[in-house]
Amino acid sequence: MNTKVLVIDQNKDRAMSTGKTLEFIDYEPVVITDLENLPRSAVVRDDFLAVMLGKISATPQLQTLLDTKRVSDGKVPFLMLPESIEDPTLLQQLDPGQTWMMQTPIKYPELTTLLERAGHKDRRVQKDSSFSPTGRSKRISRVRDLIAQVAPHNSTVLVTGESGTGKEVVARAIHENSRRSHMPFVPINCGAIPAELLESELFGHEKGAFTGALTTRKGRFEMAEGGTLFLDEIGDMSLPMQVKLLRVLQERCYERVGGNKTRHCDVRVIAATHCFLERAIDEKKFRLDLFYRLNVFPIELPPLRKRQSDLPALVKDLVSRREGDGHRSLRLSANAMTALGAYHWPGNIRELSNLVERLSIQNTSGLIDVSDLPEKYRMGYANSASVDHDDSDLPDTEDPRTTLPSNGMDLREHLSSLEKDLIRQALDVSGGTVAGAARLLNLGRTTLVEKLRKYKMSAGTAKSSGN
Q1: pLDDT in tens, 162-176
Q2: Among 265, 226, 257, CA closest to 241
Q3: What is the pLDDT of residue 168?
Q4: Report for 322-336, 418-432, 451-465: range of highest mean pLDDT
Q5: For residue 270, what are the β-bridge partners?
Q6: Which among 72, 251, 361, 387 is most buried, taking Cβ atoms within 10 Å?
Q7: Of 272, 230, 267, 223, which Cα lies nearest the Cα of 249?
Q8: Count of alpha carbons within 13 Å of 8, Cβ hemisphere only?
Q9: Distances (CA, A) of 324 to 175, 383, 402
């Protein structure tokens, strides 16, 4: 758990006393009493659990802190003492939902309660990010936008895509960002359970309902009460079972197998399939009425071969997850990444995950080059001569923007041009929204606004003026 707390208070005695109190209750305080001398390392870090504001005055250093990404996104709570409210412009820059008032003198029970609340929120932020689809390609950014749109509602969602594209990740992301996130998320693979047992798995059964039913058993709908039920591979469900599922979706009630008591349910249903359900409908293998019930809000996941720009981020994420489980750290050379980018990935992200696991077991050096990849992943790599040397620290291709001309250059002008180009790209990807572009550039919104003003750009004109 993150235990770092930034304390900013020009009342030195109180600041020191607060720091000692935080240490006593096992937190790590960073105490600042003079903002003019605030170390840049403390300003730019955005990994604080919370920020305590006491008596303060507006300074550029404080503004830089407010512009850090997690603060501007409303992910860091501010514990405010009465003196810090005197500057109204300060309050306007903070998320009201993350601005928590404290009394003076500081009371130990109140401080402990607020920090525990901040710790719970910090774990939720980490948890949410671990379920979000990885990558910044336009295709996967669109998927994240759809998740954000539908998560607050109770609408049924149908996630489609090839096997291994991460359909359960999308379902979990919807659940974790919904009002049901504190309730169960219950997955079931409809294709992995025999048709004669699926009804019992979904709705439960009473004791003696069939041979082997020695006790009463809850079904997945009952387990997911108040939460989300994820029906994976819905296209493999038998027609008789589809009829029973349709009734639950329509009437929000069911009976256990062998029982006659009608049970009402409050469950959000997210279904997924790798099948073309429209074709299955034409072949009389899937009910049209059930399709309409499921397809309220469709989300289509792209295959990995159509979002290969996300490969580096996906590999980094998979390696980080294995490191978190105590496995060896890995780094892929530029040539190895080029080879993976030339592969067609029929198994999608699941295949990539299996490859990363295999490499972490087989490789002892921590550096993966082309020669370390299984043969089929090397097939598309054009320059076989590069297999014999390590070019992990070299760029994939020579970028003219980072090559010094023989007659020199104006560095400030060059960097300004590069910065403007990146801002244009970020605004284009974010649909012209300043907040979205700021997130892509890891900047605070106010910082990006200042840069737009500096370069005489606006969200609309910047987007349209790109080359």
Answers
A1: 999 999 999 999 998
A2: 257
A3: 94
A4: 418-432
A5: 157, 230
A6: 72
A7: 267
A8: 27
A9: 23, 34, 35
Rounded to 5 degrees, φ, ψ at 422 are -65, -35
Asked whether the beta carbons of 343 and 376 are under 8 A apart, the reply is: yes
- Tell whether omega for the bond before 405 is within 30 degrees of 0, i.e. cis: no
Query: Most distant CA pair in the chain: distance in Å?
Result: 89
Q: How confident is the model at residue 38 (pLDDT cuts 50, 70, 90)?
A: low
pLDDT per position as a tens digit, 117-129: 777 655 454 444 4
What count of Cα atoms within 13 Å lies in the side-chain half-sphere of residue 245?
32
Which tokens is 449 given? 């606004």
What token pair was written down for 178?
A: 């919904």
Per-residue pLDDT at 65: 66
CB 310 within 8 Å of CB 137: yes
Per-residue 3-state assignment (H helix, E strand, C coil) for the chain: CCCEEEEECCCHHHHHHHHHHHHHCCCEEEEECCHHHCCHHHHHCCCCCEEEECCCCCCHHHHHHHHCHHHHCCCCCEEECHHHHHCHHHHHCCCHHHEEECCCCCCHHHHHHHHHHHHHHHHHHHHHHHHCCCCCCHHHHHHHHHHHHHCCCCCCEEEECCCCCCHHHHHHHHHHCCCCCCCCEEEEEHHHCCHHHHHHHHHCECCCCCCCCCCCECCHHHHCCCCEEEEECHHHCCHHHHHHHHHHHHHCEECCECCCCCEECCCEEEEEECCCHHHHHHCCCCCHHHHHHHCCEEEECCCHHHCHHHHHHHHHHHHHHHHHCCCCCCEECHHHHHHHHCCCCCCHHHHHHHHHHHHHHHCCCCEECHHHCCHHHHCCCCCHHHHHCCCCCCCCCCCHHHCCCCCCCCHHHHHHHHHHHHHHHHHHHCCCCHHHHHHHCCCCHHHHHHHHHHCCCCHHHHHHCCC
All residues at 6 or more sequence positions from 195 whose CB lies less than 8 Å from its CB, including other chains: 237, 238, 240, 241
The C-alpha R_g of the chain, in whole angstroms, comes to 27
CA–CA gap between residue 421 and residue 296 (Å, rounded): 39
**Pairing relation of β-strands 50-53 and 78-80?**
parallel
